[in-house]
Design brief:
The protein is 39% helix and 21% strand. With 416 residues, the protein is an alpha+beta fold. The strands form five sheets. It has an eight-stranded mixed sheet with strand order 1-11-12-13-16-10-9-4. A hairpin with a 2-residue loop joins strand 14 and strand 15. Helix 3 packs antiparallel against helix 4 and helix 5 crosses helix 12. The longest helix has 33 residues. The model has no long low-confidence stretch (mean pLDDT 94).
Length: 416
């Protein structure tokens, strides 16, 4: 949620920034309601002061006039408090629907087609033979099974088996070992969170709620990424500035409906309803999020470089940025059989947007300020796809990236 003072000071900019994300905001109504809230609040305060004055003036048993006056003041106060509740609730509802403005350096664009490639690293892999895609390789090696998963769970689910499981967990171990050395605190979060928390994070706006699985007999949502249960860990907390940055690395299963993606990436395990994800979350002081954002991107790039896979970095435009992010980078890996780069990880700064909605603060001297929040993917299941396709050999075996061999206990994945 945005600081109301920011809206008062720069209403035109806020309206324009929302429009750049495809959201229409009636900024005049916001300012009108804000004025009403302030006006009623002043009236409520005046009536309370009058009530207190009456109470102080009573010595002993109140006179009939004092009783009558006190009764009228009480009725007036109740009416004004109810009016305040109604108007402030209406204002709060509108404020919760205003997206986080993008950073000044973010390009204004309509959708993902206008995202900017800011860096390309490594040469796309070329083969002397016709490469197989990740599903063909997975079935050949008996490490990916979508057929049995379809019987058990339906479309867009999969089983990992044998060395597929070991490779998946090798990536997780690699991420945790690296990030713990960087000072990240390991954490295993819940995969179910309250609706009010998901709303507070800003993941149910701009049509995003349709991608969330909910529990029918409870007011709970299944997380679509570990950050959704790690970020609210500090709800209503006040941290110390000297303890910042506070960094976490968490692992959880993630669930997504993938609404609107039917017909896209139906082959294999690129776009599925359930997958595992290792996520980074960082809480920093005011003014530190730009530096932290570059740091988290550098970590994601380091992971790609250590895996030895060609990649590119995209800076996401406003139309593809989402409701809560102020800036976002995507890291895309080269997928040989598709002849293009596909997203593997991303990192975003949401500034103090989620902190204001969830009341997450830190103490800076005598002041309490809102935490700046960032998130970034270490690894999901998609790097598995990139490894299989880029490290395949003509016989269908897979060379294990050197950095993962100590976790896998082998150099080659081959048919059993």
């Amino acid at each position: 949620m945005l600081d109301i003072n920011l809206i008062r000071e720069r209403p035109g900019e806020i309206q324009k920034a929302a429009f750049a994300k495809g959201v229409s905001v009636d900024i005049k109504l916001v300012l009108k309601l804000d004025e009403q809230v302030q006006s009623i609040q002043r009236e409520v305060q005046q009536i309370r002061e009058e009530r207190n004055a009456i109470a102080k003036s009573i010595k002993g048993k109140p006179t009939p006039e004092q009783v009558e006056k006190g009764k009228k003041v009480k009725e007036d106060l109740e009416k004004k408090e109810e009016a305040f509740r109604i108007v402030s609730t209406e204002l709060q509802t509108i404020l919760l629907g205003i997206p986080n403005p993008s950073k000044p350096d973010v390009k204004v664009g309509k959708d993902e087609s206008e995202n900017e490639v800011i860096k390309t690293v490594g040469e796309p892999k070329k083969f002397s033979f016709k490469p197989k895609d990740h599903l063909e390789l997975g079935e050949l090696l008996d490490i990916i099974d979508v057929k049995h998963a379809a019987v058990v769970s339906g479309a867009r689910f999969y089983y990992l088996k044998n060395d597929g499981v070991l490779l998946e967990f090798a990536l997780k171990q690699f991420a945790f070992e690296t990030l713990i050395k960087e000072g990240f605190t390991p954490i295993l979060p819940p995969v179910l969170i309250k609706k009010e928390i998901m709303d507070g994070l800003g993941y149910t706006q701009m049509g995003e709620a349709e991608n969330i699985f909910s529990v029918e007999n409870g007011d709970l949502y299944l997380v679509g990424t570990a950050e959704q249960s790690i970020v609210p860990y500090h709800t209503d907390d006040v941290l110390r500035k000297e303890d910042l940055p506070r960094r976490y690395v968490g692992f959880s299963t993630a669930f997504r409906r993938e609404a609107g993606s039917y017909g896209k990436d139906t082959r294999g395990i690129i776009r599925v309803h359930q997958f595992d994800k290792t996520e980074m979350v960082s809480f920093v002081a005011e003014g530190e999020d730009d530096r932290e954002h570059e740091y988290m991107l550098a970590i994601e790039e380091k992971f790609m470089q250590q895996l030895g896979i060609a990649y590119q970095v995209l800076k996401v435009c406003t139309g593809d940025l989402g409701f809560n992010a102020a800036r976002k980078y995507d890291v895309e890996a080269w997928i040989p059989t598709q002849g293009k780069y596909r997203e593997l990880t991303s990192t975003s700064t949401v500034t103090d947007f989620q902190s204001r909605r969830l009341n997450m603060k830190y103490r800076d001297g005598d002041q309490k300020k809102y935490l700046q929040v960032l998130n970034g993917t270490a690894f999901s299941t998609r790097p598995l796809i990139a490894i299989l396709e880029n490290y395949q050999q003509e016989d269908g075996s897979i060379v294990v990236p050197e950095v993962l061999r100590k976790y896998m206990g082998k150099d080659i994945i081959k048919s059993q």
